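User: For my dataset I need records formatted as: sequence, then C-alpha cells, nothing else. Please produce one.
Assistant:
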Amino acid sequence: MLCYMLQQVQQFRKFGEDFAMQHGDSEYLDEVEAELRTAVLEAMPPEERLRGLPPEERLRGLPPNERLRGVSFEELVFDLNEDQVAQLREALERRSGS
C-alpha cells in the first residue's frame, strides 16, 4: 500500500501545477511523501535499505574509526600500492618519533 501511495505522489507531481492547483491538499504533498518514504524504509530490513547504495554513501557521516570497525590490519593493507605503503611507513615513523 505504501509503495502504491508513493507511486501516486510521483504521478501527481508529473501532472504539473495546473492539476495540483485543483486539489486543496497539494501543499502537503512533500510532507506526505516524506512520511511515506520513512514508513517504507522503517519497514525494510537494514541490509535491504543499503542495497544499491555505493559504499561512499553507505559510510557517509561515520567517523573513520567506525568506518574501519571490523576490518583487520591485513585486510586494510592488502591492496595498498607501493606509494601508499611508503606513506604508511612515513606516518608510522613520524608517530613513533614524536
